[in-house]
Please model this.
Amino acid sequence: MPVHVLSYDTAHPGDTSDLLQNLARFDPLQIRRLALLVKTDGNSDLNDFSRSYGLQSAGLAIEQFGGGVLLERSTFLFSSGCEGAMTPFGQLFVDVADAEAPASHDSALVFGCARSRQLTGDEIGTLVHADLVTQTVQGAMADAGVTEADVSLVIVKTPVMSRVPATARQAVNKRITSAYSKAVAALGAGVALAEVERAQIKPETFDADPTLHARRAMVFSGNEVDYVEVLLLANRAGAAGDLYVQTGSMRDLLDASGLRRMFVAAGCRINADGEVEDGERVVATLVKAGATSDGRVRGRRTTIKSSHIDMDKHVRAAVSGVLGSVLGDTRAFISANTVHQAPPGGGLCACVVRRSATE
Amino acid sequence: MPVHVLSYDTAHPGDTSDLLQNLARFDPLQIRRLALLVKTDGNSDLNDFSRSYGLQSAGLAIEQFGGGVLLERSTFLFSSGCEGAMTPFGQLFVDVADAEAPASHDSALVFGCARSRQLTGDEIGTLVHADLVTQTVQGAMADAGVTEADVSLVIVKTPVMSRVPATARQAVNKRITSAYSKAVAALGAGVALAEVERAQIKPETFDADPTLHARRAMVFSGNEVDYVEVLLLANRAGAAGDLYVQTGSMRDLLDASGLRRMFVAAGCRINADGEVEDGERVVATLVKAGATSDGRVRGRRTTIKSSHIDMDKHVRAAVSGVLGSVLGDTRAFISANTVHQAPPGGGLCACVVRRSATE
Amino acid sequence: MPVHVLSYDTAHPGDTSDLLQNLARFDPLQIRRLALLVKTDGNSDLNDFSRSYGLQSAGLAIEQFGGGVLLERSTFLFSSGCEGAMTPFGQLFVDVADAEAPASHDSALVFGCARSRQLTGDEIGTLVHADLVTQTVQGAMADAGVTEADVSLVIVKTPVMSRVPATARQAVNKRITSAYSKAVAALGAGVALAEVERAQIKPETFDADPTLHARRAMVFSGNEVDYVEVLLLANRAGAAGDLYVQTGSMRDLLDASGLRRMFVAAGCRINADGEVEDGERVVATLVKAGATSDGRVRGRRTTIKSSHIDMDKHVRAAVSGVLGSVLGDTRAFISANTVHQAPPGGGLCACVVRRSATE
Amino acid sequence: MPVHVLSYDTAHPGDTSDLLQNLARFDPLQIRRLALLVKTDGNSDLNDFSRSYGLQSAGLAIEQFGGGVLLERSTFLFSSGCEGAMTPFGQLFVDVADAEAPASHDSALVFGCARSRQLTGDEIGTLVHADLVTQTVQGAMADAGVTEADVSLVIVKTPVMSRVPATARQAVNKRITSAYSKAVAALGAGVALAEVERAQIKPETFDADPTLHARRAMVFSGNEVDYVEVLLLANRAGAAGDLYVQTGSMRDLLDASGLRRMFVAAGCRINADGEVEDGERVVATLVKAGATSDGRVRGRRTTIKSSHIDMDKHVRAAVSGVLGSVLGDTRAFISANTVHQAPPGGGLCACVVRRSATE
Model:
């Protein structure tokens, strides 16, 4: 079951022409599982409908290509916010049933997907939510045929509250709950990965204890879903294919060295200018970076938390510069807010690379 | 006349406490000339009053420190927009009359300042405006005691139109004129620096001919001034002091290598991680970067020119990441829009460094 | 052929549940023509995809209800921007073939629709564009079976340029062209309505001559269409049905009296508090209001043209208060920018009312 | 001691030319007390420095006019946000010592001012804060020489937290505290006015119990102050002068009738168009309006609480239309957020009118 990872461009969130062109390489009947990880160019605010629009458009395209049968085997994770030097694009993961594909020398990339049942508004941000994330991650591990030790990265989409809460008091709580939603999902994923103990997940630790965090989870939220959806990347011994996933970490949002270490660990070369030399082998890069609680970077004041622009936008734009200058490519899945996914101000990164120089 | 270049922090645009502390090192009567180059944290939009507020506050502080006499010898250039990993701060340039200061081995940093007469609204964006910039740059060269060949960087503040034009038709023109204002100022500065021929400055080339640009000018605009103001940095043979200014260029906004080349040319060391190793010797860094006309970076679509966020904010934030990851410091004067100051999509950079390892 | 005009709510731009419930009242085979006029709640900026998302969703809903046959008979005009006290909603126009419907005593509401061929980017903002609008309005008159004298209101959707122009110079032109697009469409509609002479449409009058404007046209633009689309409302003698359309005008954006005059002319009563007393008879209200060229209202400075918020948002929000306080309802189709559709600072309004007190 | 209430225009927040012209009518030595109530045109966001800039500029102007002695007798309340059809302007209150001024027939406008000590960050949003507001309102009553029953309106400026809290957990709390700050101030003012019982002020009721609210208090917050400042308006029996203050209420933000009732109660005439006929007698109008907890208006969804634009901006802009269409003037002090100052969704309004038709 060799896995293919492709990038496709979008002229706007509803554009699926390049997606369809990439899909045309495959026989829909041979696709065991398909996943889309997409950055859309909406305003990342309450009235951003780019994710919903992209989701609906991608669903229509996949159905057109492979019918309802393929649609059922597909997983979608849309995230908006492409500030700075970032390209809105999609990352297409295809797992093809290919009996003739040779097993890899050692281990190779596999991915797994799972979706939870729908959550009610009251469940979001509670321990029920955390447990559902844990179970969904476990489901994705089963789907990928891996154990927790094989996992490199878990990408979790988690619902946030509907837009209009019933009372002002609730409004305050829901804001907290909105932050809680990601925190809870991160901790629930951490339990599935044996990085966080179930007993540590208590309402009073959500968004409060900076030492408590998962190490291989990136969590996204959005009001376009009311369920938990997981895309899990792992290297599995004996899997077919030439791809490999490598995880790394960033000390802060300026930590280009952390990114370089990840690429080196993945087998890439860094040239004298500090850039990845064999960038054509990198088929996917994902970064999640955050701000410190006071918005300071390297000890100095910034406007990350004190401007009319949401802090996540400052972070994504700055990191697009850092990563872009290292990788030389603007098609990277960069997102912000690392609550319970990294130490405060730090970040998590991952890349998928081709072992051989040419495909 | 050794020149001192200091950085000071601000808690907000009206905060001058750290400026006053830095000024306290000097005897106001010995200050030949003083210049402030300040990044304020306003929203960089039509209702951004952070520059005006900072200007008024700094004027009050300087007057408090050195009276109206010192205020008359002072030059102020305020620019707003500190997106991403950028610290709002001020760069204080002080030229002290010190008979005992030894002449430098070779050349050392000097600066010169000049201000034009007030422009009328009708003059802004015209050849009159361009010629006034040329003359003001020449005045700053005379003030610094240098010729055009010595100049490393000319920082020009130029007025834009008042906020409410009289008619819809004018509104359209004034928007053009607003772009023209910077273009005109850049070309006017280019004439003074012998980089642009006076005959090339024609209305039809403003913002239209990408090959026509100054090479050592950074231009800022703002509705808080109705005159042209210039701060000029040069290395002058035999000047006293230990500081040196170095100019460089960036190919595009991700060009960390261009920044490293500038630091190396200024005598700094780059470590294995691609970072400036002796950053404590760097006393000032200035970058002006721009976007290509279609907003693409390395050939790929971005949202720089197609989002609710102004393109300059995307550029500043991304560059704050690129420079911050190279320099390891967030106190840098980063700005955007390089119309007629660099090739489209490219940038201009400069740094002031201390020759000796310790002050 | 009695015409039905219904309002439906949306929980978000992709929500068609209430639309489908309203459609369920009709037999799709009996529908001669269907039109949707929808306000979506996007950010009204370059990265607002709410119109595209709403358009895609409504198309899917109509197809689900009446198949491709009904979809071909349907016209869609989406406009975003629901600032202030405005409800995002849709106005559904249905023209039902009903042989038994009695002819009205005098005249009754009819509507007509038409769509132009696709425009190329080069054509937008040119005389070709204006002529296409004229022809499309004429097509809509034919569709409604009316002559120019019967027409009460022409609603025109017109394309604007794609988001990323090729060069900086073009960027400037395209901004002009974007304003031109509406201006051109308004003047082209004015020709069809015998309000503007074809010879008056010259590039130099676009957005320049405030005395030149249509009197019964509301123009909307959006990058989700590359054709001109027209929905035309008229009262036709002998038409079946109980509905009537009335046009009015506003002197400026605070002109509640202008709105009251329109409602009175349409047969409504105004109570002692200045409110429409029989608002249940009003089935649709449309307002298009603009700002003066200097942004002043009643002679005083406002921030309509000098803030970080686009002028159209200021106008829509303020007018939502004026109309809402008169009509007592927040479901009204309020939009801004009246270039060549009204005198500068003035506005155009219309309402559809039921002649009898109960349906 | 006749009180004068004048309006002055500003070209920008730092413009005091019209203020100085208005002040020139008075002898500074005769001024017992001076107050400025100013709307500035900043972006009303974390990086809005228009209030600070206006405050600094006004202080410099008053000092220039009347020296430090007059400055000490002056009170400043700056509020930003002039969305919609609102004019940025200042309302100047001057209490002149004039032995010859005849006592009024019945009662006439007086005002009183008071300022608290500085609050620490830890005190903001606590009962200490509430009690300080109570005491400051009592101080303003004493200053005006009135008892609680005479008071028509108390305008309270209250500090909010500094911009960068120390930890993420605090960030959440501080957001609550920021809402609490106004809530606490409103309730503290309510105690001084005998509208709220001291025992009812408990952390759990802040922003939670909608039935608990003051009836004559408008509260403003801003990070430009670290103390509580109060301007109190009252009608005092036997006071000199021709001015009178009248308070009213709005049922919701579209309630033009509530505004008309207030003007009628103040002795104004409403014409057949529902407009104030003798608007020249109205020297000041103040409105504070709020949104319901779910953002609905007249039962229908709006985007007030679900867009990229802060809800207060939606409210201010819509109310500027409602009031402007009734009063025919755009110089009104309109603000939003009525937490504990009115029932949810309702508003408080007040006007100062001249009893005689001509001054």
Observations:
- Chain A touches chain D at residues 43, 45-48, 163-172, 175-176, 179, 207-208, 210, 293-296, 301, 303, 305-308, 339, 344 (CB under 8 Å).
